[in-house]
Amino acid sequence: MSKPNKISCRNLWKVYGKDAQSFMAVHSNAPSLEDFRREQYVGAVRNVSFEVTTGEILVVMGLSGSGKSTLLRCLARLIDATSGAVCFDGQDITKATPEELIELRRHKMGMVFQNFGLLPHKTVLQNICFPLDVQGISRTRREERGMELAQLVGLAGKENFYPRELSGGQQQRVGIARSLAVEPDVWFLDEPFSALDPLIRRDMQDEFLRLQRALNKTIVFVTHDFEEAVRVADRIAIMKDGALVQLGRPEELVWCPADPYVAEFTRNAPRGKIISVGQIMVPTSAAASEISIRIDQKLDDVAPLVLGSDRSVKVIDHDDRVVGQVERDRLIAVMFSDGARQ
Amino acid sequence: MTASADSAASRSKSILPGILVGGAAVVSLILFAVAPDWARQWPAEQIVPLRDWVTRFFQWLANEASFGLFTVKDLTRLVSDILSGPLTITDGLLHKGFSQFGLAALPWITVVLIMGIVGYAIGGGRLGIATTLGFAYLAVFGMWPDAMKTFSLVLVTVPIAALIGLMLGILATRNQLAERVLSALFDVMQATPHLAYLGPIAIFFGFGAVPRLIATAIFAVPPMARCTILGLRTVAPEIIESGLMSGCTPRQLLWRVQLPAAQRTLLVGLNQVIMQTLAMVVIASLIGASGLGHRLLFSLQQLQMGKAIEYGVAIVVIAILLDRISQALIARNPARAPTEAEKAALLRTSVILGILLASSILVAWLVPAFRLLPKDMTFTTAPYWDQSIRWLSRTLFVYLEFFRDDVTTYILVPIRNLFLSLPWLPTCLLVATAGLLIGGWRLAVTAFLLLGFIAAIGFWVPAMMTLYLTSMAVIICVLLGLPIGICAAHRPRFTRFALALCDTLQTFPSFIYLIPVIMLFRVGDLASIIAIIAYAMVPIIRYTHLGLMRVPANTLEAGIACGCTGRQMLLKVELPQAVPEILLGLTQTITMALFMTSITALIGSRDLGQEILKALPAVDTGRGLLAGLSIAAIGITATRLIETWAVRRKRELGLA
Question: What's the pLDDT tens digit per position in B120-148?
């Protein structure tokens, strides 16, 4: 079941330094880390390629300075990439004219910012309606839509307040509502919850997932918090020093990290919530247990069953066929110890 | 091996400036002693006749120059016509009336009500009452027509200057070349004293209200442009990005996102425009006699102190009220937009107020006293002031005179003679050496050329007079301001008092300081120096306070933990870190002192300001302008030297 690619990003580079274009040219469009160091250029994004399918949530992760925000800004063309292509539905936006770019942003893209980026001189409602306002949509129509969105993100009754009167969580709700005002296909979120308290952050993640279930946008979500990434992601891209280190489902990252950097990231991840039964079972078609678990269930969900049983538990697939079995010791080893992924 | 080499290098590095300073001092002492005549006084026959060239150039430009299709004269006439339009309207509304339509000016009672309403709408009840009383004061004390002439000029100048400043600021943020040109131009403009603008403007626009307006506007534009640049630069990048992602066109981004987001800084700029306008109102009356400024100037020169005080108070009242109104505008911070019900209530109130205003006009039509208070119904306090000053003179002046004469004879005159005898070449070389030590060759050459320029055009002696007055004042400013600033930083209760005092002092137009000084000391060097001190002291207090407050808390704790006494804390921990900030305050004090020095020319000091004044009636543009630029040259040299050092020191301390 392959879905069409909504966003495709090919060999994207963003180099900072004097006359970055010719620096790229001199090194035949593939400067090495050594080249950057020697000539004192900064490779904020280095040769990044990936695809995002329609309706997918791709989370871009990395420590600060790893280039994740720069990558996102290149996708939205808030920053011009040095080389490479970014296509939306096949249209390369790195080559779009200023007018085309404005059109794209007015209809296809929405973005949420870490520090909200709200306009201080406009009320909540005016902020939400601002993207419609600049398009010249009539006041009654845009305010109708604005009230709808305020309702959607739980801000009803706050429409007339100025942003500074709201809590951080409420301000980000305004940011979210504004980014949805034009009903974009593509939704960019730049560390949307990083500036919020941990408790509010969880609420907002739930809220975000609820919205996404209803709206089904194509999403690129930047964060530095692995737990958050795991909660919201379909796939996670991990960046280091501007380059993409690994791209895959959360389970893949945890189970077989590409390098020590990724391993370090995933070390404290809640394995039980990420790894599924299929990953740790021993394939066999003849398991004898009465208790059965499904192959795609997460370890946390099956742990009580497996731990409570004194024998191994059988694993079935979608068609209720027995495909393997899981042993208690194996489960304990995977869930609670570090070196158990072999 | 390397370690010892390093320490040797650092030792030689730390010795090197010492050697250079010592060497320079020795060499300059020798130079001062043995300098030949041409190095002491620029030979009269060698003086570059730049003044005459400039004068002739301006005459040619104003009278003959042509751009082909139209001449400069046509252009200035066009500008005059455009500017006199709004001025006619405000003049007509406030004091002249529109005779061609048979309409009188607004009655004072109506204007007072309008101002009260404006004050209330922007700043609430207290400001409303203050503005009402303040403007009523102008009427009751018989200064209404003069005050309205001044106010009318302010009303037209402020929006024009603010708009031009805004546009220039926007231009500077969009175009690098424009920014570089403008910032260099503003540096020179802000270092050139108010007086110096008057000559060139008079030659293009003559004398009268329009040239006054232009002189005032020119002075008020740079701070607005600077605030615009600062405001636009400091808008959070995410706000701009959110505007872009909302699909703004570049124009929408500027007008609907960047400028509104920079609102607060822009309003600070507007406040500065208002303050500069009021400061210039008096000075500009030299080229267009009308209004409070002219009256004040006239009474000052006639030594009619009672009247001078009244007019001075009137200007201060307007200045303070307009300052408070614009401050209230900056501080306005509503929690939410008005609801529909509130909007309706607001509309009802406006209708009622409109009716109130209309009926006030009607009442004034029936009762002439509400139109313009007849002379016998106004008060004047001038006789009382004159009496008390006479009393002061009789009782106090005997002692003050002793003080003045002693200080002048035994301290000021010798120092003045020392300054006036400074030979130009060794002095320039000495300053250049300082520049070399602080900032390198470029700074040295700049300093040398700027000061050499003054000698070359034959202004060395008046320049030394300016330097003498200014340095005396600045030294005393530091001696007084530093302790006040330190006190303000250490004693919270004193802080509020000191800062409020600074705020108030800053709203006074420079001229005002001449009044009490003349009252107490008559004219002379001492009077000038004291006026300069009073005007220029504020920045040094403010920046000392600021610098000390910015010392990081953990550094302070570390000092306490090391067992410093209070004295040691101040001298060894706090002050060293605050020094760069204090020095930046010092540069502002120097600039302001230079301005005030030129203004003291009006009470007779024989400095560069006097050259400007003398040039005015003679329409000797070159003389006035070059004297002004000489003051700017002194100011720029001093601030460059100090700033370079302060910025370097700041970076070394990791405070930048």
Answer: 988 888 999 999 999 999 888 888 888 99
B339 in contact with chain A, both atoms CB, cutoff 8 A: yes
Cβ A165–B336 below 8 Å, yes or no?
A: yes
Facing residues of A60 across strands? A222, A237
Which chain B residues are Cβ-neighbours of A121 within 8 angstroms? 260-261, 263
- What's the gap in Å between the CA of B257 and the closest CA on chain A? 7
The residues that bridge with A7 in the sheet, in sequence order, are A52, A88
Q: How many angstroms separate the Cα of A288 from the Cα of each of A283, A298, A315, B50?
A: 13, 22, 10, 110
Average pLDDT of chain A to the nearest whole number: 88
Q: Which residues of B touch A178 (CB under 8 A)?
A: 242, 246
Please tell me the distance from the alpha carbon of residue B579 to that of residue B562, in angstroms, as a whole number. Answer: 22
Mean pLDDT of B478-483: 93
Please say whether the dihedral angle defined by the alpha carbons of residues B347, B349, B354 and B359, taken in this order, is positive or negative. positive
Nearest to A110 by CA among A14, A20, A204, A174: A174
Interface confidence (ipTM) of the complex = 0.87
Tell whether A215 and A330 lie within a shared domain.
no
pLDDT at B14: 56
- Let me know whether A59 and A193 are in one domain: yes
Please check whether residue B566 touches A, CB under 8 A.
Answer: no
Our CA-based measurement puts residue B262 at a distance from the nearest CA of chain A, in whole angstroms, of 9
Which CATH number fits the domain that encloses residue B468? 1.10.3720.10
Tally of CB atoms within 10 A around B630: 27
The domain tally of chain A equals 2
Distance from CA of A121 to the nearest CA of B (A): 6
Structural domain ending residue among the three candidates A226, A245, A269: A269
| Whether A56 and A198 share a structural domain | yes
Q: What is the pLDDT of residue A333?
A: 82
Residue A59: which domain range? 5-108+184-269
Any domain includes B495? yes
Distance CA B589, CA B532 (A): 10
Q: Residue holding tokens 């060794």? A: B426
The CA–CA distances, whole Å, from B488 to A323, B44, B480, B495, B499 equal 80, 51, 13, 4, 8
> Considering only A174-188, B63-77, B189-203, which range has the smallest mean pLDDT?
B63-77
Q: With an 8 Å Cβ cutoff, are A117 and B239 in contact? A: yes
